[in-house]
Amino acid sequence: MKTQLLKERIVDILNAEITEIESYDAEQFGFVELPNISVKMQSCERITKAMTKAFTSQVEITLRAHSGDSLSVDQINEVTNDIEALLSDNFKDQINAGINNLCVDYFAHNGGIPEWEDNTLQCRFDCEVIFQII
What are the strands, taking DSSP E only, across 32-119? Predict the structure, then answer.
């Protein structure tokens, strides 16, 4: 499905641009160590019945780190800032540059939402994307 292709492209960009921490598909099988960045498609809906190839979707990009990880708090904060800057700087153009049969028309994130639970940081970037199958 095209949402899987879109998710894989986002993971590829994150891995190319944020090299300190591995990014992966949040719905893949297997064990992934902390720190990591996961990408998950929350929803995907057709915009209207008249536009059968245009969709809107919610993407969740989550940075997870543990207090005992190899990265310091300053390094984690730097990675968080790098992710936010990447998502703000023509991210849709980067997606479109490496994907076929799909065109992202709009990509926006709502900033990072950091949350601590026990000794684990989770910083979630909720994003909205509008794309069409071409």
Answer: 36-46, 54-66, 102-117
Distance CA 97, CA 91 (A): 10
pTM value is: 0.91
**Residue 101 CB-density burial (10 A; 0-12 exposed, 13-18 middle, 19+ buried):** exposed
Q: What is the DSSP letter of 53?
A: T
> What is the CATH class of 2-133?
alpha beta
Sequence-distant (6+) residues with CB within 8 A of 86 are 13, 14, 17, 18
pLDDT tens-digit readout, 1-56: 678 999 999 999 999 999 999 999 998 867 778 899 999 998 899 998 888 999 99
